[in-house]
Specification:
Blueprint: E1 3-12, H1 16-32, E2 37-42, H2 54-57, E3 64-73, H3 76-86, E4 107-112
Antiparallel strand pairs: 1-3, 1-4, 2-3
C-alpha cells in the first residue's frame, strides 16, 4: 500500500502567490522523483476551535491562512530516498526556493496507508 506525507502550515494570506510558486517548484521536484500524487490545499472553511483545530495546531495569527497537503508515494523506501536527495538538491535550498511561511510552526509526518476505498 502507499505511504503518505501529510503537512499543515500557516501562511501569510498576502503571500498566497509566493506560496503557490514555492509549492510548484517543490512539488514538481517531488513528482519528478516518483511521487504518485501531490495535493496542496488553501483554507476555505477552517473553523477556530477551543481545544483543537487546524488554526490552533499551527498557531495561526491574524492575517494568516491554513494550508494542508499531502504527497502519496508508492513506498516508504522511495519516499526516504527522495527526501534524502532533496536535502542536497540546489533548487531546494532556502536561497533558491525560500519558504514564504514560518516552517517552525509546520506540522508534518509520514503515514502508512491502512485503508484505501
Amino acid at each position: 500500500m502507499s505511504f503518505f506525507d501529510f503537512f499543515v502550515a500557516a501562511v501569510p494570506t498576502e503571500k498566497r502567490k509566493d506560496y503557490e510558486k514555492f509549492a510548484a517548484v517543490m512539488d514538481r521536484r517531488i513528482k519528478d522523483r516518483g511521487a504518485l500524487r501531490v495535493v496542496e490545499s488553501w483554507e476555505g472553511d477552517v473553523p477556530d476551535g477551543k481545544l483543537t483545530s487546524f488554526p490552533l495546531a499551527v498557531k495561526r495569527a491574524a492575517g494568516e491562512s491554513v494550508v494542508v497537503g499531502f504527497v502519496e508515494w508508492p513506498s516508504r523506501k522511495l519516499r526516504d530516498e527522495v527526501w534524502g536527495e532533496l536535502r542536497n538538491d540546489p533548487l531546494m535550498q532556502p536561497d533558491k526556493n525560500p519558504m514564504p511561511f514560518d516552517g517552525k510552526r509546520m506540522i508534518y509526518g509520514g503515514f502508512d496507508s491502512i485503508l484505501d476505498l
